[in-house]
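Box 3.1 A note on notation
Throughout this textbook, protein chains are presented in two layers. The first layer is the amino acid sequence; the second is a token string describing backbone geometry. Keep the layers aligned when reading.
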Amino acid sequence: MNELTTKRAKKFIWDVVVIGSGLGGLVTASQLASKGLKVLVLERYTIPGGSGGYFKRKGYTFDVGASMIFGFGSKGYTNLLTRALSDVGEHCETIPDPVQLSYHLPGGLEISVNRNYNQFLDKLITKFPHEANGIRNFYGTCWKVFNCLDSMPLLSIEDPTYLAKVFLKSPLSCLGLARWLPINAGEVARKYIKDPALLKFIDIECFCWSVMPADRTPMINAGMVFSDRHAGGINYPKGGVGVIAEKLVKGIIAHGGEVRYRSRATKILIEESKAIGVQIANGEQIYAKKVVSNATRWDTFGGIGSKVSLIEEKETPAAEFKWKERYIPSPSFLSLHLGVKSEVIPNDSHCHHLMLNEWSQMEAEQGVSFVSIPTLLDPSLAPRDRHIVHAFTPSSMDEWLELSPRSYQDKKQVDADKLIDKLEKIFPGLKNNVTHKEVGTPKSHRRFLGRFQGSYGPIPSSKLMGLLPMPFNTTGIKNLFCVGDSCFPGQGLNAVAFSGFACAHKIGAQLGVNQWKLPS
């Protein structure tokens, strides 16, 4: 061993350092810690979770992001949040939501998605009786995709050994899943459905979680969401979404890992074309055998108009430039976190709502409005006789740039009032019963969550072949990995948990700590 190698080996006090404590980063870290590796998580903010975190104000516990949570089922392999917590000895008490979402759509189309699959199907067929067969065939195809996913352990498809073992375990499921990798949901929907209004409904079904219409939503993702909401169901963590991150942190620490807050990564250290560690804002350099970035791909490798990135342009692999041609940042959000008097929310209301006035506005600035009322499931999140109303609508960072401080504050209030006016249509009297209000903008998301342009995640710049163009966890820089919504399979807490399992498995294979036996 030469002098340089000896010196460097002494500096590697961590096996893995993870940049960011979003759910993807925490699942990666917790999985690796559970395998006996020494793991450090660096978080720029004061609490964990990123978009899956929380904040508290005047007796309210507000979820940063949406409260529609997949992955807390008890059977199969798609209950990824349940599995991630269990692997580090933790558990979340959850509250089942009887309805995934209540739609309020153009033309007076009102429909709610029941946890019970047949009830939902019956409702939709009642609205479109001439498309009964098409509806059954489309959602039936989604179940075929889901059943393939749910019959095999969801780990890294970059690991040939894993692929061989899972193929021997479930050969038909593997072949069935491979068939859908290049396919988008819109292609399947048009195969079975002809009614334009029903196809628009399929578009909004996709848009509500992928922020893309069906033609740009991978069929793998659609199969997961459209079926798991009836299989595992939507289950809200008691105490708020931030409890998930807190329990993962607790599990990481219990297994010998560490989570450092107020530790903003400013640079990934590269030596001889290998990642060797991370530099943080105070100048400290932390060395590790493997580095994982839970920052967005743009914040990791730079993006359009980006002033800083964790990797210098000269070190950026060619594949990352290609990725940035294929994908663009989705819009961010204007977010309202409201405390309201409980009488303004009827007791029989559903927790989650989506509102759209005109189909042409689905992808427009502040076109679709989303609403979550988590206190209908967990009243402990708010003071007595109060509810939380979290409303949000897509908004581009461009709409908020080059404003004076006064103009910025004025726009926040004007846009917030417009959104409250929309909410009045389903909750009359809401405006006069607000007792607390917090307004977030794309600039807020950028500042507090450290996300490029405050974006929800990447969306295709044009129609692509399903999930095939999405990058996986490995990068063109040795020992550097990415995790989160910029990686396969994309956005959503359960999707980034999948990414975390995959990333940890790939690193575990390289460091020789994976069990030979597949998860049971």
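Residues 1-7 have pLDDT under 50 and may be disordered. The first strand starts at residue 14 and ends at 19.
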